[in-house]
Amino acid sequence: MASTPQTMSGILIEEPGDAEVLKWKTDLAVPQLTEGKILVKNEWVGVNYIDTYFRKGLYKAPMPMITGGEAGGIVVDVHPSVSNFKPGDRVGYLSSTRGSYAQYNTAAASLLQGLTALTFIREAYPVKAGDWVLVHAAAGGVGSILCEMCSSIGAKVIGTAGTPEKMETAKKNGAEWVISSRKPQDELVAEIMKITEGHGIDCVFDGVGAATFEADLQLAARKATVCVFGNASGAVPPVDPLRLSAGTPAKNLKLMRPTLFGYVVTAEEYNKYATELLGMIEKGIVKLERTSTYQLENAKQAHIDLESRKTTGKLLLQVPQ
Ligand code: NDP
User: Any idea which fold 113-259 has?
Assistant: First the structure.
């Protein structure tokens, strides 16, 4: 096997800011193997909305940083403490410590959006047949998969999306009803009440955040779960817990703010959900059909497109070999 080089190409962020701060560098240090780690030569890197939060400084990380939390590639080196991987193995991995926007990364070994959707429908709110479920950004990365999973369980899925094309995609994903996310929020609430014949939504999955949170509380049914898991439109401001029991009779809402990395902490948890997700992909429940690809060097354009609501499905960066 060829020896691992000392330096690599990748995207470095030296200070927080807009997409311009994603700088292509050709002299980055290849990460060192430490206990329990494998070294992966990345082939494809997953772009996720969270990458924009780290880039902007909404989520804090030491600078300079190589961002990115997900990639797939080939194992090229293994620490002596690791026995379950060997050079040549093909792997997909998540990294809560970032570092995937580059040619090499270490992993404690995409899946990030699929595992997010799966852990949320199992643990944040166990979705059942017959539930009314609302998925915001239903043509996006996580939203597409949430629609596929919830509809396969037999839930009644309503989606929101920003353009007629994205609304069509959301339907194909399994949202039986789709409402434009460009509508005023009071119209969204009224439409949901009409579709559900006054019942409201049993579980809202909301990765949009600030722009939709107030409507979520209004369109939620009694005893519903409002699961806010992202900030695509900005972070939700602090909430007075008393608001969760507003209404006559009181709604007694559950408010969740889950993070994938809190559900896949142990190897057992990770393996359980990764296995179930791969099974869903094999069965065609999760299709992963809609991907847009960019060269790693052009990560800036991927961020610009993602943040301007132009994209559907998954965004991937191709890594030069
Ligand atoms: P998406 O592909 O879903 O992109 C975000 C979408 O949000 C846009 O396409 C757009 O859809 C919608 N949107 C609505 N309002 C705005 C706005 N003002 N600005 C930008 N977008 C807006 O991204 P991802 O699938 O990568 O992520 C979705 C959400 O899930 C993000 O908030 C992300 O942070 C969160 N997430 C959370 C995780 C966790 O563990 N908590 C893990 C993974 C993702 P449209 O135009 O159709 O309305």
Answer: Rossmann fold (3.40.50)
Q: Please tell me the distance between residue 146's alpha carbon and the centre of ligand 1 in angstroms.
A: 12
Residues 6+ apart with CB under 8 A from 283: none
What percent of the chain shows pLDDT beyond 90?
88
Q: ipTM of this model? A: 0.98
pLDDT at residue number 289: 77
How far is it, in rounded angstroms, from Cα 23 to Cα 1?
31
State whether CATH 3.30.70.3450 applies to domain 7-109+290-318: no
Q: Where does the pLDDT of residue 109 fall: very low under 50, low under 70, confident under 90, or very high at 90 and above?
A: very low
| Ligand 1 probe mutation, 111, 123, 142, 145, most atoms within 8 A of CB | 142
Number of H helices, E strands in the chain: 8, 14
Around ligand 1, the residues with Cβ closer than 6 Å are: 48-50, 112-113, 116, 137, 139-143, 161-162, 166, 181, 207-208, 211, 229-233, 258-260, 306-307, 309, 311
